[in-house]
Amino acid sequence: MSAPDGRELRIVGFLCNWCSYGGADTAGVGRFVQPTDLRIVRVPCSGRIDPLFIVRALISGADGVLVSGCHPRDCHYAAGNYYARRRLEMLKQFLPVTGIDPARFEYTWVSASEGQRWQHVVTTFTSRIHDLGPAPRMTGGNGYAELADIERAVQAGQGCPCHLKEVRS
Amino acid sequence: MSRQFISHDKMTAWLDALSRDRAVLVPMDDCGTVTFRPYVPGRKALLDKMPVRAPKEGVFPQTETLLRFKYDKDPENLDRVKVQVREVLPTQKAVVVGGRPCGARGQLILDRVYNCDTMRDPYYVSRRENTLYVTVACTSAESTCFCHSVGSGPDDSEGSDVLLVPVEGGYVAEGVTERGRELLAEGDFESASQARMDEAGAVISRTRGQLGEAHDYSDAPRKLLERFDDMDFWNEQAAICISCGACTYLCPTCYCFNMTDEQSGLQGKRLRTWDTCMSFEFTLEGSGHNPRPTKAHRLRNRMGHKFAYYPELHEGLIACCGCGRCIKSCPVSLDIRAVVQAAQNHNAVPEEAEEKADA
Amino acid sequence: MSVLQELKEQIRAALPELDMVLGWEQGFDALHMRPLFIRTEKDLERLVLNPLCVHSLATYLPGLLRGAGNDKKVGLVVKGCDSRAVIQLVQEKLIPRDRVVMFGFGCNGIVSLQKLEAGAQGCSGIGSVEFAGDKVVLSAPDTKVELPFAEIRSGKCETCRYHNAIDADHFAGARVEEGAVPAKHPTLEEFEKLPLSERFAFWQEQMRRCVRCYACRNTCPMCVCRDHCIATSRNPHWLTQESSTAENFMFQMIHVMHLTGRCVECGECERACPLDIPLMLLRRSMNGVVRELFAYESGTDPDATPPLLTYQVEEETINERGW
């Protein structure tokens, strides 16, 4: 069942195979109702996750990205999620300088038996993304490609999109 | 020889008129630098500044979609896949206003490669036929300018449809080609007085003076080929190079490209994008072998191509326009003039070599 | 004895044991120096030392020192920022400390050619540049322009805390006193006042200008993958060939992510960019995150462990129970 307002946005989930994917399975087995916007990519461990996966997803058009792994101290591979925790926290704090809303990326820890928690995580995150709306996309390029951008902006009543205040050291 | 004249504000009106049914690319402020950007009424054209990027973008854009394709699976027989292909031929009319003579020279070099007896690139030819060049002559020369040493000059009109020489209050205009003259008819040009034409001549003379003496590169092809196997020479010349590619992407005469299929799901497009011979992947073969494995090999190729191989194939035309962008934008200030001259001076007695080497 | 003369003496004494020493020499005009590879006394005569010596020579080290059986010993002249790059490369075991000899000196800042050209409007054909105390005199055939050095100094020098090379094997001249500097770079401070949507629009604009020439990547002393960079590989296929804003921005993300905990803020990326894109905004922000989360400063301690290569079971700075 899709989200309350009927639209489905594109949310990508990176789940570790042992805990979180198992948790999602448990939620499925228990027939817990969740919005269907989230599409899962299974990885062996949250430590496998390169922060660039999340950035690539966001830049390519994902409206939200959710990462889930085993609880710290419970990683199937002992220390994978410790590394993940550092990388993902770093990414979350770095995103604001790019202009991408850090609320569109979330990471959490869900174990294999926590079906209900998984349902809660997905429902809450999806509803947060719906509140934020579709993510802004980077468009266009140089030369002739810029013409299309100008036309689009002019038609949208924004006038010629000339550059913003310069910030340079 | 008659010329026309247009004042600065009538110039703006002319650009407005041109932009009604054509894409007009002009030098424009780009967050502090100057590049070619589309002109729409209200935007300010900076015709006295030479853009960082080259005017070849009008006929040879950095990224070009050649065709789009789509796979259709036959539901009756999943082994059978149909593919639809749609060509994307550029038909937009355009005029590039504000390039310099050195930039226009790029067209001469690209034309011989992309539109000749044995080869006709339909995408390039379509753009070339639909794009006109209004070139602005130079009123000053920089330390990196050497157009006069490679067969061009501050008022060289080859490759342009219209040549504008800046004078007090406006420009003296010459319709170089038939289509250039038609373009002039769309603007409020008046007949240029003798005084104005003299002023234009004086402007060019002054610029020529600033350029100094031209260097003779006529024996460069032979001298570069003599150095071909001398890897010590090339290792020394390439020592400071960091193999980025800034020189190739900003060069008005560079024309190498890459073709890749970018697919997403069952559809995609075939792109042509600029490629740089300074990168390792440029000549990397599927087997893993690379005939140009080091930056020394790649620098040898770049210098050789511009000053030896191309001139040998094309009646002495040097594939370098002397604009100096590669020198200015190189992060380590590697100077193409110094490299070619080092090859020319090689074998001379060391003291003589030092005397001969000039900027 | 001037600092340059002292430096030359030190290099002269060390040269017999070294394969080469990297320094700077006069470039194609008065405003441009270029890297110099010194092997002989004749090469040494060409060495210069002035605020136009902007290049970080550390970027050549991995290429010169790597490979099985390579026992080259290389010296290089380093500004404070350059020495941090060397230390970081040593920390990551990308170059061996015992085969690198650093010649340090006290640096008061380098010139930003962008600012110099802006300040010297109307002065064309500059034939000579003189650095006299806190003034810079530019001479052209028909004009002379005097500018305060502070006005044309590179922005990165505003927050420099390492005027003197760290861990230098030789040091020429007197040490420069480190003054107080703002903790956060003023441009980043200004940028962070913008709302998210404006920041996004800013990068949209800047990435439209990018030519994907990779000058930023290749000048970066920390970028050692060189020919095998994932940005230009087809397998894995991270970036398409399209030079669209989205792909250009993705490249910057790749670069910044791969520099997490490694970037020494030498500013070479921004200097090398032919389009003057303000790349340092992203890198300074990342370094701020690293400093806050892991209390780590890259390029200062050759024995430190990079923060992403280690972990704490209990992280004081990370709220893991979050939501």
From TrEMBL, chain A:
Q: Which species does the entry assign this protein to?
A: Oleidesulfovibrio alaskensis (strain ATCC BAA-1058 / DSM 17464 / G20) (Desulfovibrio alaskensis)
Q: What name is this protein filed under?
A: Methyl-viologen-reducing hydrogenase delta subunit
InterPro entries for this protein: MvhD/FlpD (IPR003813)
What highest taxon heads this organism's lineage? Bacteria
Q: Which UniProt keywords apply?
A: Iron, Iron-sulfur, Metal-binding, Oxidoreductase
Task: List GO molecular-function terms, semicolon-separated.
Answer: iron-sulfur cluster binding; metal ion binding; oxidoreductase activity
One Pfam family cited in the UniProt record for this chain? FlpD
Domain F420-non-reducing hydrogenase iron-sulfur subunit D: from-to ranges: 11-133
